[in-house]
Design goal:
NE0471 N-terminal domain-like; 3-stranded antiparallel β-sheet; 4 helices; globular
Amino acid sequence: MSSVEFKLAKNVIYDAITREVIVTLRDGSRHAWPVRLLEMVQSDADAWLPLDEVTDEQLAKVEVYGGGQYILWDELGQAFRVSDLLAGRYGREDWMKMLMAMAQ
């Protein structure tokens, strides 16, 4: 198994208590991200709009997708590349700038 294959998702769950998505990689490591950091949006004709009132029930329906390259909330139309999450990229550039500004 190559080093790239080790970094593919094997399993994903949503923890409603901590409001984190937890990904187990094929190498056995576990990584958790607060859902509030993930940019969940829908496309409008002119802009990207944040999803409103996403429930724990909806977030619990997360699955591994694309041979482990993505985690997917099919019902919500949201997919995140595992390699982006591991690199600290949780959304578009504007989203990341906003997160950085909030952290300071």
